[in-house]
Design goal:
The complex is a heterodimer of chains A (492) and B (243). Chain A is of the alpha/beta class. Chain A is built from 13 helices and 16 strands. In chain B, 28% of the residues lie in helices and 30% in strands. Classes of the chains: A alpha/beta (492), B alpha/beta (243).
């Protein structure tokens, strides 16, 4: 099996448990509620000509969530990691339910420091927040996961973000406890192990990792862990789909779980691609949206296009003419950002009724192709804040996948965000890129997609799903084309 | 001081926006000559002009933003050069019916402000030849006088992009064209690239040379008593080079 490129993951709150997307703090919820809902953002129907919005769900919506519960020391965490390894996918996130411990008040906190607080009771967990976050993830949105500090017995101010996993493993003694959580789970696993195995594992772990003494551990076991297990943890086996004895050593169970998840993912991929195909309807007959601005095919534009298209053009010339043309694309894109009137005093002592830009304009590069437009971008805005995302098509399915994401922190407050990509053919990765911005709170009508060439089909799909974005295109090409521009520009 | 024509006030912005969604600004005065092309009055162009017009803009910004306008002028200017059909094969093996540029070009800047436009020209035409003409006002006659010129030897065979950012009365531009004509450049192979023009300057220049294409970003309201363009942007050369 080909090893998957591993998605870059940020540091984790405690223990190496949650592979999580790099966090950019203050990420707001999408402004208009559900990203695919009929957004009523400003400018949506000023002239009453808003197009009907097609439905698009990114492949990471409806994430498969697998719950793994079981006694402390039953091997949940080992099992989770074993499943991740077996799946060999970059989009699996393990979420420990420990992140959702409630912050303790002064009295409870004191107890906690004396090993007198009952961490093994469901009351210690904030299921409301857990359910909210899981629902967000299920809706394809970004979720801010609290960070709990065992040192302070309190939630820290920072959060870590999870965004766009295909599979989420929720692991913890009470993963199958709350009925609202159960509703969201695609598969429920209960880890089983003999109580004496559990206790011995716990002793070893707590001595090694948490610096506890033997007496304290045993006291806690009999005072809290065991009674809670019998009262709350063990009954969860009744709602489990499968009960896995012997943890990772149970190869048959592991194979079943992995097979099931793979099947689910395959179904979703097929479904996603079918959706994309459905969006093709009308591509040839309907006119393009008014918000698609194709560059005037002036003679210089055509001359430059000819040089860029010519396979015999030297790399030097290619890069030179592509930069020149991309600067023009960016100039055109900047006509779509907001301006306000400004009275300008000239050195001649007169005033001029001019304009000034309102607010910051930033850019987001869709890697790798979008980086070819960066020289042009910086000719127009030298110090433009620039986010990046790496979207690549899966070689097997052709489905676009998000591998890396780093956005400016305040991207949701920028007056406009230029989304740059060199080429857009089917529109799959552009759809995904816009969806990512929307999920990070960027208003749709503030997004200007800039691309050198686009297929009619891709433009149609994109503007059907996101009728309020603006698209600036160098040229419209009839067919789906492979991404040759970035190959020429970067010479590999 | 000559008569002023107020700049038209218009909503500017992309077509998909309704009038109420577009901000209002002063746009270029209309021009009666077919030979004159005024750049599309986009909100971005107006904003760029606003920056370089402002007396509070520092030199670094003046250079950067005027350069952006100049690049747009050059790009528009190059559209007026002749092309031929040219079919090429693309990297994906498709055949592409395009155009190729025909003919040789050169730039000629009217010193010193015109030299400020050379960078923008080079950003579009890498190794273009650039000639220079120095014209200054003769203190005795108060008429423009040719002090110096250095032009490509084969200039008569080239298309000439004449560069001067400010067209006030048109005196030096007219004299520069006379120099070019004396070297055998026909009028219809000269393109005059200009950032800011006065209506009088356009009138004087284009009446005299109806075959010379003028490309300008903006035609302003008029001239003041010292023949500076108003509302204007001050002295372009000073703001670009020394102030």
């Amino acid at each position: 099996m080909i090893p998957w490129p591993v998605r870059r993951l940020a540091a984790e709150p405690h223990a190496s448990r949650h592979p999580i997307m790099p966090s950019s703090a203050n990420a707001a919820e999408p402004a208009g509620g559900a990203p695919n809902g009929p957004a009523a953002g400003p400018g949506s129907d000023a002239d009453g000509t808003i197009a009907t919005r097609a439905y698009y769900s990114p492949p990471w919506a409806d994430v498969s969530i697998i719950g793994i519960a079981g006694s402390s020391g039953s091997g949940k965490s080992t099992l989770s990691h074993a499943i991740v390894n077996k799946l060999n996918l970059p989009w699996v996130v393990i979420l420990s339910i420990d992140s959702f411990y409630k912050s303790l008040d002064a009295e409870s906190s004191k107890k906690a420091f004396q090993n007198e607080y009952d961490f093994d009771s469901p009351d210690a967990l904030d299921f409301d927040v857990l359910v909210d976050r899981l629902r967000d993830l299920k809706a394809g949105k970004r979720a801010e996961i609290p960070v709990y500090s065992f040192e302070k017995h309190a939630r820290l101010n920072q959060t870590t973000s999870i965004y766009s996993p295909h599979v989420l493993i929720l692991e913890g003694i009470f993963a199958l406890y709350d009925p609202r959580v159960l509703e969201l789970l695609d598969m429920k696993i209960f880890c089983e192990a003999d109580a004496d195995v559990c206790l011995s594992r716990r002793i070893l772990r707590d001595q090694r990792d948490r610096g506890r003494d033997l007496e304290g551990i045993i006291k806690q076991w009999f005072k809290f862990v065991k009674p809670n297990f019998e009262k709350y943890v063990d009954p969860q086996r009744k709602v489990a789909d499968i009960i896995v004895p012997r943890g990772v050593e149970n190869h048959v169970a592991m194979a079943m779980v992995v097979q099931f998840i793979r099947q689910k993912l395959m179904e979703k991929s097929v479904h996603h691609r079918a959706r994309l195909t459905q969006l093709e309807i009308g591509a040839q007959s309907e006119p393009l949206s008014k918000r698609v601005m194709v560059m005037n095919q002036t003679s210089q534009m055509r001359v430059m296009n000819t040089i860029i298209h010519n396979i015999d053009t030297s790399s030097e010339d290619f890069i030179f003419y592509f930069n020149r043309l991309s600067a023009l694309l960016v100039e055109q894109a900047l006509n779509n950002v907001p301006f306000e009137p400004a009275s300008i005093a000239t050195p001649q002592g007169r005033t001029y009724a001019g304009l000034q830009r309102t607010g910051e304009v930033s850019a987001v590069i869709v890697l790798r192709g979008g980086a070819a437009l960066e020289a042009g971008l910086h000719r127009c805005i030298t110090d433009c804040k620039t986010g990046r995302m790496l979207i690549q098509s899966n070689v097997r399915t052709g489905e676009p996948e998000l591998h890396f994401l780093a956005l400016p922190q305040d991207v949701d407050r920028h007056a406009a965000v230029l989304l740059l990509d060199a080429q857009m053919s089917s529109g799959g990765s552009a759809l995904m890129a816009v969806q990512v911005l929307v999920d990070h709170g960027v208003r749709e009508d503030r997004i200007v997609l800039v691309t050198y060439s686009a297929g009619r089909m891709g433009l149609h799909r994109l503007t059907k799903v996101f009728p309020e974005i603006t698209v600036v295109v160098g040229q419209v090409v009839p067919d789906i084309e492979e991404r040759w521009v970035e190959k020429r520009y970067f010479r590999c | 001081m000559s008569e002023l024509k107020r700049s038209p006030i218009k909503c500017v912005g992309p077509d998909y926006r309704s009038e109420s969604q577009k901000p209002v600004a002063a746009v270029s005065a209309p021009v009666d000559f077919d030979s004159v092309t005024v750049l599309p009055q986009t909100p971005q162009l107006i904003a760029l002009l606003s920056i370089i017009r402002s007396k509070d803009t520092n030199r670094g910004d003046f250079i950067f933003y005027s350069n952006r306008i100049i690049r747009l002028l050059v790009e528009e200017g190059l559209n007026h050069l002749p092309t031929v059909e040219h079919t090429v094969t693309t990297p994906v093996g498709r055949s592409y019916d395009g155009l190729a540029f025909q003919g040789k070009i050169c730039g000629v800047s009217i010193m010193r402000a015109g030299e400020a436009m050379e960078q923008g020209l080079r950003e579009c035409c890498r190794s273009v030849r650039i000639g220079k003409i120095l014209i200054q006002r003769d203190e005795e006659t108060s008429k423009p006088r040719l002090f110096y010129d250095k032009l490509p030897e084969d200039i008569a065979d080239r298309w000439v992009l004449l560069l001067d950012p400010m067209l006030a009365t048109g005196g030096s531009a007219i004299m520069a064209v006379d120099v070019l004509k004396s070297r055998g450049v026909p009028e219809d192979r000269i393109l005059f690239l200009n950032v800011l023009a006065s209506p009088q300057g356009i009138q004087n220049f284009s009446k005299q040379f109806p075959n010379i294409r003028v490309i300008t970003a903006f035609v302003d309201e008029g001239l003041d008593e010292k023949n500076y363009i108003i509302p204007g942007l001050g002295d372009f050369g000073d703001r670009y080079y020394t102030r």
